[in-house]
Amino acid sequence: MAQKPQINIIAVVDVIGALSGRTLQNGNLCLVDNGDHSSTGQGTTDLCTFVRPGQVVQWSALAVDLQTPVDIKSITFLGPDGTPSPLGRRDANGESEKLDLEHWAGMVPPFLPPGVPHRYRLELQMYEGEHSVLHVDTPALLRV
Amino acid sequence: MAQQLAIIVLVDIGNALETNTLEGNTYLFDNMKLHGSEGQGTGDLVTAIHGAYWRDGSQATEQVLNWLPYSLGSIPPTVPRSYQSDRARQSDEQALAELEAVTAKAGAPGADPTPELDHIRQVAGRRVKTTRRTRGRLSGQKVLDVTGQVVTEATAAYSYPGPVITDIYGQAVDEKIMYPAEYGSPDLVTDGWYWSATVDSSRPGTYAYTMRIQLHKLVQRGGETLWEPVNLTCESKLLITSEPKRNGFTGAGLGWLPIAPQAAQPQTAQPQTAQPQTAQPQTPQPQTPQSAAPQPGAPQFPQSAGQPQAPATPHS
Asked: What domain of life does the UniProt record list for this protein's source (chain A) (predicted)?
């Protein structure tokens, strides 16, 4: 089967559940992808998406209750010790009111070593305010 | 898909009917304060709509508006659909039972049934005549107050039927900025119908629109009580902005995912299908955004506009 040029990862968020419990766990966040390989952890926060170099991976957030706001605030790949990668934009946090303009997509780099999960931090913003941003560090990309 | 927009149209029906205008008697709210809507809770709501477009100019997000009319000083719309007719039937049953008791005592010497009959009249309330226009949900009803009790006296306060949007028109519709229509809904809180519209966000600006709202006035005609429809209008505005979509990773167009090669170390928790690697290839370090000239062989991360871009049109 020909390789898909693009894989979509959708973060389905129960915004009211997440804000009430201040957590994306307990079923408040489900990650799913449409990759052509057998990604693991579909429907959980532990989604491991199998990718190939050159494929475009696109993330988007979808609220379970369509009248609640949720946007991706940032996606940061983590090092082996779980610390965020120094790569990526540093200016991304100053414009939170325009998060809806951000389109989260990128190509899988060719140098990515196969067989190891590259975990990333997915930060979601629901409305605004002190407790509006929550994140998970558990999803990953894995080059097959 | 973006968040759906809800616009609540809260009408003070009693005052609107008295002054025969919705001006000053309508309170509008939406759920887009975050995006800059202004005038929440007033009659002068300006609903902010963020549009977005791709690099080729095509519309990137679909904005959907939903209108929800509510009444101030009415029985809440969340009661069961048959609540009004159930209350009418219960008052009939109670009146009949009391009438039976009065009839049984009627033969007794010296009995004066006047107080009991007065009470029965109170219990029976006032039935609203069903006309061709009020057939359906308003049929077979009695006049009730907001607590669901039947109302007998013509001067007493009573609950109005909820407001009904019967049309949305005006500049924003004429100029094809939004495409409103009434849709059937399984949600009986909205009486099984609701108005919704999609928005063309490609032409930024402020556009007015008008809602035609039908209220019902209780009138006495020929000894009968009727709900008479009263059509009024109120205006609101859409403020449409549109900005280009940008890539969250690069701030511009599509690039490589910012994964540091050193991140690719063996990890303890791996999926079962993963092939653990004991020796990692020694990949050159990529450049950080602040670093100077690229080193030969180092992968490049697009950091700004002007980098060669891959096609950015998504397939969502």
From this structure: Bacteria
Of B213, B228, B244, the residue that ends a domain is: B244
> What is the residue range of A67's domain?
6-143
Q: What would the 3-class secondary structure string for B268-279 be?
A: CCCCCCCCCCCC
B277 to A69: CB separation less than 8 angstroms, yes or no: no
Question: Mind listing the pLDDT tens digit for each residue in A92-108?
Answer: 555 445 788 899 999 99
As a dihedral over the C-alpha atoms of residue B259, residue B263, residue B268, residue B272, rounded to 10 degrees, the angle is 30
Does residue B48 sit in the same domain as residue B168? yes
What CATH number is associated with residue B63? 2.60.40.420
End-to-end CA distance of chain A: 15
Question: Residue B82 is part of which domain span?
Answer: 78-159
Handedness of CA B276, B282, B287, B288 (dihedral sign): positive
In this predicted complex, what is the ipTM? 0.91
C-beta atoms surrounding B314 within 10 Å? 17
* Residue B301 belongs to some domain of the structure: no
> Taking CB atoms and an 8 Å cutoff, what residues of chain A touch B297?
none
Query: Could you tell me the pLDDT band of residue B9, with boundaries at 50, 70 and 90?
Result: very high
Minimal CA separation from B240 to chain A, in Å: 14
Q: Do A128 and B314 touch (CB under 8 A)?
A: no
Query: Greater confidence, A23 or A100?
Result: A23
Residue B254 located in a structural domain: no
Tokens 């049934």 belong to which residue? B113
Question: What rounded mean pLDDT belongs to chain B?
Answer: 81
Q: List CB contacts (< 8 A) between A86 and chain B.
A: 260, 288
Query: Which of B244, B270, B304 is the last residue before a domain boundary?
Result: B244
CB contact under 8 A, A79 and B310: no
Q: Which of B248, B254, B315 sits opposite A75 (nearest CB)?
A: B248
Whichever domain contains A65, its CATH number is 2.60.40.3910
Q: Cα distance from A32 to chain B (closest Cα, Å)?
A: 13
User: pLDDT band at B272, cuts 50/70/90?
Assistant: very low
Query: How many domains, chain A?
Result: 1
Q: Which of A2, A143, A134, A138 shows the shortest CA–CA distance to A61?
A: A134
Same-domain pairing of B87 and B206:
no
